[in-house]
Amino acid sequence: MVSAIVAIFLVALFIRLQTNFKQKLLLGIDSPYYLQSTEYLLNNWPSLPDKAPPLVFNVLAGLHVLSSPFDLSLMTSLKIGSALVSAIVVFAVYFMVIQLTKNRVTAVVAAFLVAFTHANVRISQDLWKNALAVSLTPLSVFFFWRGMETGKKINLLMAGVSFGAVALTHELTAGALGIAYLSYIGFLIGRRQQLPWLEIQAVAITFLVAMCTGGIYFLDKRGSARGRWSRFAIFWGGTPASNRDLW
Predict the structure, then answer these.
(1) What is the DSSP track for 131-185?
(2) CB-based contact 163:140 (threshold 8 Å)
(3) CA-CA 20 to 30 A from 202: which of 50, 69, 105, 241?
(4) At 223, is the pLDDT very low, low, confident or very high (cuts 50, 70, 90)?
(5) At 21, which helix (H) or strand (E)?
């Protein structure tokens, strides 16, 4: 099964690399943004030119630094990096599904379907923050479920760290993961007709660690998370800030 997963990963990576290198320039409408931000980070680390979640830019910059012995251009490094952060979802999904189902065949099939679904290939070409966030999300679920089964708190801590990493990559993906955890608690309440205190404690630990890992980034200079979300100020009666303030 290990060889099957490695083969799926290599084929998925090859397809993404082949697509990326068909064109001289980077693919996607957002690619100039990623190119400019990564270049800025390389010259001004750890600062970014905006307030976007920083993890994907640090990963891409790190890959470029590691490729320096090969004298690759930044554009070439980004083509490789964008393919890589998307293709690694194969391993994350495999570990998550095998933890949930204890069935290796099911896990391999799930990894195959995720690797070659159109949406996943699409985000590797343009929405690189989404691609990395989607690759990291299954790891949080994997560690959370492992912690529930083994009772070892270290797994819940790792689930929280993974959750925080998702938040440092893409806010909406982190929000969806948070809703999934809360929905899990809601499902258990409805099924058991009582509060599942053990699971509530596990989710609370995961959320707390995630907040310590990634939540602090979303505090603005005044120590309030509200500034990071000021583009939604219309919903609480405020005036949205300028694009410079938002990003």
Answers:
(1) HHHHHHHHHHHHHHHHHHHH--HHHHHHHHHHHHHHHTT-HHHHHHHHHHHHHHH
(2) yes
(3) 105
(4) very low
(5) none
pLDDT in tens, 85-101: 999 999 999 999 999 99
Which residue segment(s) compose the domain that 70 sits in? 2-213
State the total domains in the chain.
1
Structure tokens at 63: 């890959």
Q: How far apart are CA 226 and CA 229, in angstroms?
A: 5
What's the angle, vertex CA 226, arms to CA 224 and CA 227, rounded to 5? 85
Domain membership of residue 43 (yes or no) is yes
The enclosing H or E element of 72 equals none
**236 inside domain:** no
What tokens were used for 88? 């690694």
Query: For residue 235, is it within any domain?
Result: no
CB atoms within 10 A of CB 128: 29
User: Residue 242 domain-assigned?
Assistant: no
